[in-house]
Structures are given as structure tokens and as C-alpha cells.
Amino acid sequence: MTITRNPTRSVQIGSVTIGDGHPIAVQSMTATRTQDIDATVALVNLLHEAGADVVRVAVDSQKDAEAVAEIRQQTAANLSVDLQENYRLAVSVAPHVDKLRYNPGHLYHHERDKPWQDKVRMIVDTAAEHDCAIRIGVNCGSVDPDKKEKYDPRDSISPMLDSAWEHCEFVDSLRFTRYCVSLKDSDPQKVIEVNRRFAERRPDVPLHLGVTEAGMPPDGIIKTRIAFEQLIGYGIGDTIRVSLTVPNEENIISCPSCSRVENEAFVQLAREVREMTRYAEDQAITIAVMGCRVNGPGETDDADLGLWCGPNYVNLKKGTESLGAFPYEEILDKLKSELDRLIEQKSATA
Predict the structure, then answer these.
(1) Cα 274 to chain center, whole Å?
(2) Domains in the chain: how many in total?
């Protein structure tokens, strides 16, 4: 079967070009703490040597930004930076990287009274000055709150599309076209739908494909493969990244153990949650385990029970309701109590 690729424009990211018929680029990301320069450089170079076209590094502080400057001196890899909640760090990292990623939903976390357009304009101006590409990264759990209010809470796709289209139009108005877009969800079918609908309206914009919180093999691979095979078969997708974490059962959603994780106990906790919840595998219950405060609060909203990890405490949620923050050594007992209560409630209404 011949696949006709979407007629996207070309976007240069360092030494690689995506879109306009170029080969689909493969991106990966570091799992080290960015300020651990030696470990991060070693991993970046390992990924680069293995064939990764772009390697993403997380930056959440000025010290992280300073570390990126040193990392840049020790690698030839094309570097991308996730600005996370602090868009202002773009000024510090742009001279040292090839692509800046920002999430429209995260622009509301700082300087709340400042229009988002002013923040994006600063990112775009900085990228243009330092020869960087941009990725507008929209995630299901961290969407522009104004967009979410317009739609039924069960409709997670329309707010994502509205946000992506709005940001594309604004960046276009700044006469900056060196950008791509990503629209991610943990449900591969939603990933397929949201990307197809975006591409129908904006076939010119290169798309970065991924399934967020995919988990680990085999489930994470299956979820990602479903989305990638469908979308690439439609000619959609110019760069891809597979986000995997520790082994989990199908009722466990977990994020990749990337450099945003503030306590390495998250990885062990995810394993322990998997083991502890095996008795509930047959229940129609979803448990989300997130490793950081960036995506954790929002991306656990759709789970029946959610955990997102901070440096010293784990935040426990039931849907969108916060149940409190507990020490790592106490969280499993708290989770089990809530899980048993939820199973009992479901049995009572069955």
C-alpha cells in the first residue's frame, strides 16, 4: 500500500528536518536529573548514537537551564527542551538548544494576570533570535481552562483542538512558521481522532505523535502501536516519541520516568502499586501514577484513583477530588483503603 503523506511544511530542528516529505524523525527523552550533567550527557549521547534524531531534556529551574548550557558543550545531539510551567526559562535555554516545547495549558501557572499571547510572543521572539524550532504541545490533562469550560466534561478532544488551533493561528500571525504541534492522550483511539481532526483543518502543520502515560511493555507498546499505525497509515505524523515506564497492568496508567521526577521513589512506587492492585485486575477501575507536579494534578483527573508524586509526599486523588498528601511509606495503605471502598461501591450499584 502506498501511503500519501500529509503535505506539511518543512521545519528544521538542528541538523534534522521534519515535514514536507522528509523521513519521520524519532525523538527520545532523558530520564536523568538535568542537573546531573555527567549522567545526562551520557544518556543524551547514548540516545544520539542509537539513532535518536532529537533528545528532549526537561528544564524546571534556572539551575536546570545552566546545566543545559554545559550539556550542550558535550553533545552533538539535537536538543529539545520542555519549558514545563515556567515559560520565562526560554530566554536562558534557547541559546543552547534546537527546539523549545511549551504547553498552552501551562501558561496559566505563572503571571496569571498576563495575557497568554504576551507569553507566547516572548517564546516565539526568543526562538527566532536563537534559531530554534517550537513544539506546541497539548496534553489531555493540562488543557487551557477556558477551553475546557466550553465543552461537556466528557469531551476531552474539542478543548485540545480549540487550544491547538488558536495557538497555531496566533503564532502564524507573528510570521513564525518553524513549529510543529502535538496532541496527546493516554487513550490511543483519542490520539487517533484528535490528530486526524487537527490535520484535516491544518494539513500544513507537522505533527509530533505520541501516547502520553502509555506505561511499559507490553501494554505501552500496544497502545502506542495502535495510534502510530493508524495515523501514519493515514499519512499523518512527522516526528514520533514513545513514552514508556515501569511494567504495569492494563488498569494502571503511568507516566514515563523522565527528568521531571522529583523523587526516584516514584519508580519503585509504581511497581508496588502494580503488585498491590493485582487483586483488582478484573475491576473496571483505572489507577494513575504520575511522577511529578507538572502533569500529575491534571492528568490524574480522568482516573478513578490517582497518585502524583512530589519530593516528600504523594498526593492521592479520587477523580478530580483531592484526598490529601501522604508520606511515601503510607501511601500504599491509603490507596488500598480507597480502592477497597471503590470496589465496594461499584459492587453495591452493580
Answers:
(1) 22
(2) 2
H helix or E strand, kind and range, residue 200: helix 188-201
CATH code at position 163? 3.20.20.20
Task: Indicate whether 113 and 193 sit together in one domain.
Answer: yes
Burial class (CB in 10 A: 0-12, 13-18, 19+), 232: middle
| Contacts with 240 (C-beta within 8 Å, 6 or more apart), sequence order | 24, 25, 26, 27, 208, 209, 210, 228
- Which residue range is the domain that position 336 belongs to? 265-349
Low-confidence ranges of the chain (pLDDT < 50): 246-249, 259
pLDDT at residue 273, rounded to an integer: 87
Q: How far is CA 261 from CA 32, 33, 50, 100, 255, in A?
A: 9, 8, 24, 20, 10
Are 58 and 175 in the same domain?
Answer: yes
Domain shared by 233 and 282, yes or no: no
pLDDT of residue 115: 94
Q: What's the pTM?
A: 0.74
pLDDT of residue 154: 87
The C-alpha angle 120, 16, 11, rounded to 5 degrees, equals 40
Cis peptide before 256 (omega within 30 of 0): no
